[in-house]
Predict the 3D structure of the following.
Amino acid sequence: AGILVTILTVTVAVWWMAEKQNKQAQENTGTMVTGGIVAMEDNVKAFANDYAWWEAGYNAYMAGDEKWVDENFGSGIRDTQISDILVIIDPKGEIPYAWSIDDHRGTPREIFSPEIRAKIAKLAEGMPVVNEAARPAYFRVGDDIMLIAVARIAPVSRASEVDPATLPFLVQGIYLNHQRLFDLGRQFLEIDHAANASAAVEDGFPPIRDFDGNIIGAFVWTPPTPGFAVLRNVVAPIAGGLLVFCLIAMWTVLRARRLALSQALSERQAVEAARTDSLTGLTNRFGFNELSASASFEEACAKGEAAIIYLDINGFKSVNDSIGHQGGDELVGMLADRLSMILPPDARFARVGGDEFAVALTGRAALGAVAGVASAMVHALDQSFTVGGFQFEVTAAVGYAISDGGDVTPAELLGRADLAMYQAKNAAERDAVPYHPGLETGALHRKRLGMALRGAIEANELSVVYQPIVRASDLAIVSVEALVRWDSKEFGRVSPVDFIPVAEETGAIHDIGKFVFQRACQDMVDWPGLKMSINVSPAQLRDPSFANDLGAIARRHDVVPNRFKLELTEGLLVRNPTIAKRKLARLKSMGFGISLDDFGTGFSSIGYLRQFPFDWLKIDKSFISELGSNPTANALIQSMIALGDAMDIAVVAEGIETVEQLQLLRLLQCEFVQGYYLAKPMPAAGITALLAELGESRRILPALDLGGYEPSRPVLTIQS
């Protein structure tokens, strides 16, 4: 094939070059022929100009001196034969004088019929009475075409004084016969003849038009082909070169074949290795994709007898961060072994990513077993793993999809299983999630959010607002909580509940966290004495450089770390207590305060509070909303406040929306409060204006009288 392609390429290239040269020669010929036609017209016009712009000729004509006119004007025809016909037409359209070399095509008066004379008069309309003013035209005479030039016979000395309408025309013409075109062709390559054929015009030859613009012929010539002449000279050398090339190529092909045969065994082994994961011995992504694209699996999908399970490990990155990639590899091997034991013998188990696994099941029995297999894979990880002397608890997000026959392709089945796993991961499901059509819209929206979130910081779509935190005893502002907001050009105002999980999943949370912390450092310069609470995602805390990045930003803005309280949820503490303890100790040593957010909504225990260095404890607003109306909520909040006092941890109650809630929390001796009743989140300028209005006391409400306020009305609203 290579030899044939090369021969064909060389042949086409040589032929193309010859055609290119022919085309260039034809273009050059066309340019020269066009110039020759213009020169021919100029010669005819020059003869007419010479005889017309003649004082003596005009005087003789006006005096009716026929002898002088015949001897001087007629000599151009009889003696020099520079033209075929010379005619003088008076202002009335009559022909008083006419000469021609021969009359076999008709006499001049027959040729220049009244109709032709009228068209000549129209051609000369507006012709100035000056030298070199002759105008050319073509018209047909029988089977021939005549080229004429028309000029006015005028007195040279009085040209500007005479009326052009009183001046006669001098018409000089030549037949475009074979001899004349042959002579022209010798000067400008080879013109064959003036043809009466519209096809010649369509082929690009210059057209010949009469008085009315109608095509009456064309200048046609035989295009030169110098490229083919060169081609005939190079055919033999090129053919010889191609023959030598073919011999060398054939020898190379035979040698390559021998080498290929000698390496066949090692190649088969390499093919097998390319489909196997070296760490676990399972099928890798390439092999699994090959399986799913096979004809047998496609047939099973069409019959509705195929299923795919996707599994993603939660918390795997923390293992790599804490004990290194070698420990992570060891955990992957243990995961593969444990999961392999619960799978049916005919299942195809594959590792398709760093911490992602997939299972393919086929057959009627598989459809009934897939839900149980997927659920067993989730609960197979309930027991912790011991890696490098450390205990790790990891969970799995599992989704599965079953082909329902019809038009479901293997690719669609893979996508459905991936969407189901995606839903399980986002919803933190503790069991396998089956695919259903409702997942399509939600997953697509989250992916669009993730794409838009990547450019949100550069597009200046993110902002930071601050909500005051008030000391309950005197209602003075002591701190503010930084809250990120996203006003997307595509989606409008997006709730943090929607975009923060997407940011954690896509990795954008790291850039968002740095943006919020940097903006908080810039704004805190105007609020001396105030502390700042900033929410920290577990994904941020898993970043090995997280603490160093915060310290560097604080130093760059000359803000001491002890003005910050980093608020964390309990998820990280429960999943990776050892890693969390080390990370929090590092932040505490740098001066940052630590706050436990949403206390009471998760797996909170006194053991966690004793184990981790918390400075603040935030009671979740779900408890505050029932304060005063639910005795159980009252007792729980009182217990949380007492627990904080006993452990020397400051307690913050968030979500205060009524004066009754504030009064009860003061009675329960809660140390700090936060909520819409006291102040809504506001921009930095709003905080600055509020502090200026409150003065040095920073009391947001009168300290001793709380009875004069409507429970449902916010006490203070600041507009940015």
Remarks:
- The first strand starts at residue 85 and ends at 89.
